[in-house]
Amino acid sequence: MEISTSIPPRLSEILDDFQLSDRHEKMELLLDFSGRLLPLPEGLATANVQPEPVPECMTPVTVTMLNQGGRLRFYFDVPAEAPTIRGYAAIIQQGLWDETPETILQIPDDFYLRMGLHQILTPQRLNGLIAIVAHVKRLAAQVLNMPANPKPTIL
Predict the structure, then answer these.
(1) In the structure, what pLDDT confidence band is assigned to residue 49 with cuts at 50, 70 and 90?
(2) What pTM did the predictor assign?
């Protein structure tokens, strides 16, 4: 399957790894990513930076966006009891690290299909993935002072 040019290079590499994996390997990769989720840096955790909840996700997820000179960084707080959502959040974090808002807004909402995650996750978990991407895009749109899509499309 061809990866669209609207996918940033780091995210594209991750997608390639998932595409080349069978069902069992996809789950192992996702669980491996769950251990790579970077926490909010300690100094920023006490600063005036407010995490935002992702209410559409059944798992309690918050996201904090930092704008570093027009390059965005996302930090997620996801319980350890939800390793698939943690893994997906880590993929978003690593794949979009230091990307511009414009780049983030061009990412297809359904890029997770290219990873084959619909083969290994329940519809409820997939809805959580969709909600996380929609929330990240809303935050990116806010940086550009653009109106954001009010709600993600839930499966």
Answers:
(1) confident
(2) 0.87
